[in-house]
User: Which sequence fits this backbone?
């Protein structure tokens, strides 16, 4: 193999956290050093500063930093006192943390279908899931739409459905913070929103972290109490049963630096998505943000004809190009979740997507030349 061939075959990262680290360099080092100097590792000033910056960024009245995206979901459901006998509608085609937050509280996730084109909750299936819950003698309490792969769900339709049935809405924006729907950023679109700062997320920290967003003063106060063991006005008074659900100060310091470049990174991701769509739109079904939405492209997920995926993944792997499949098993097929009810009418689009989807490398530092290499490899593999 000559030198040129080796450069061409250099492995490509799926998500390049290190490239962003190089860009931010000493800004992150200095931010962490400031925390190491003041030693307020829990609920330090950076946590409050980050919450204020995130509120300004997305337009939510309250932002509550917390320990993970899962805990963000859990804290809201706990604040709403959701528990046994309650039903919460979730899409089946999602990461299982969505249903986990519901099941942990003893409530029943009802698994609804998605729309194959957007990967997101289908309002018609959601409506059928409400009927399923009632038929099973459960009390429908809330809907959790997921903004999968970075693209907002159909929030207007879901909010309208929730209002018609007297349900709460908790947006699982773990993959999509920074995206917009009808010109508004996720976080301020519905009763409550949860996001994750897991390192691979579009806005990720250097460990676990998450946040709750809401305009509801009473909900915000309950979530703030629940994230610190259900504390009352006096921190040694327990007014409810809570969690150790706080965001670490060091993670908040990291996020404050990352938030400064986040808009620029979102634009770079969008350019990369545009290059993929132009290069692959005639050989695969490529994702499109609707006219009214923008995506943060947490994943760039294409759809293939059945039977083509394994061959493509193997061909790309042989050329140093990683891929991932989110999700081969929707919730209704997961060992821990298959006992939960599925919405009447079933979840055919979730089943279909599970056999079709494959995600390609996507991050803000994906250079056009590298992307050309990926596009060329995908085209060759699918032509073969
Ligand atoms: C849709 C969705 N919901 C919830 C979560 C949970 O976030 P975390 O890993 O921060 O707990 C994730 C994380 O991958 C996710 O993708």
Assistant:
């Amino acid at each position: 193999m000559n030198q040129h061939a080796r450069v061409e075959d250099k492995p490509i990262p799926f998500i390049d956290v290190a490239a962003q680290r190089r860009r931010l360099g000493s800004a992150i080092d200095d931010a962490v050093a400031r925390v190491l100097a003041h030693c307020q590792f829990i609920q330090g000033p950076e946590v409050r500063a980050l919450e204020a910056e995130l509120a300004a960024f997305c337009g939510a009245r309250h932002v509550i930093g917390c320990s993970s995206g899962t805990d963000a979901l859990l804290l809201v459901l706990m604040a709403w006192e959701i528990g046994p006998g309650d039903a919460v509608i979730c899409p089946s085609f999602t990461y299982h943390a969505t249903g986990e937050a519901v099941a942990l509280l003893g409530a029943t996730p009802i698994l609804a279908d998605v729309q194959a084109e957007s990967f997101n909750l289908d309002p018609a299936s959601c409506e059928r899931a409400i009927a399923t819950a009632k038929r099973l003698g459960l009390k429908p309490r809330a809907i959790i739409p997921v903004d999968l792969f970075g693209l907002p769900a159909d929030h207007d339709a879901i909010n309208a459905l929730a209002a018609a049935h007297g349900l709460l809405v908790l947006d699982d924006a773990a993959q999509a913070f920074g995206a917009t729907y009808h010109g508004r950023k996720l976080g301020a679109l519905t009763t409550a929103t949860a996001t994750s700062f897991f390192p691979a997320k579009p806005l990720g920290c250097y460990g676990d972290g998450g946040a709750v967003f809401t305009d509801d003063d009473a909900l915000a106060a309950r979530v703030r109490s629940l994230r610190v063991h259900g504390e009352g006005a006096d921190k040694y008074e327990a007014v409810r049963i809570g969690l150790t659900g706080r965001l670490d100060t060091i993670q908040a310091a990291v996020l404050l630096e990352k938030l400064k470049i986040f808009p620029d990174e979102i634009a770079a991701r969008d350019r990369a998505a545009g290059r993929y769509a132009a290069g692959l739109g005639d050989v695969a079904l490529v994702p499109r943000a609707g006219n009214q939405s923008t995506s943060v492209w947490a994943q760039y997920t294409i759809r293939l004809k059945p039977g083509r995926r394994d061959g493509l993944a193997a061909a790309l792997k042989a050329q140093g190009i990683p891929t991932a499949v989110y999700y081969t098993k929707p919730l209704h097929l997961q060992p821990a979740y298959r006992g939960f009810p599925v919405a009447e009418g079933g979840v055919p689009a979730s089943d279909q997507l599970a056999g079709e989807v494959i995600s390609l490398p996507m991050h803000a530092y994906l250079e056009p030349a590298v992307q050309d290499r990926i596009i060329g490899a995908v085209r060759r593999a699918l032509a073969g």
Remarks:
- Residues 68-70, 94-95, 97-98, 146, 172, 174-175, 196, 198, 208, 210 surround pyridoxal-5'-phosphate (CB under 6 Å).
- The CA atoms of residues 156 and 189 lie 9 Å apart.
- Residues 249-280 form the longest helix (32 residues).
- The radius of gyration is 21 Å.
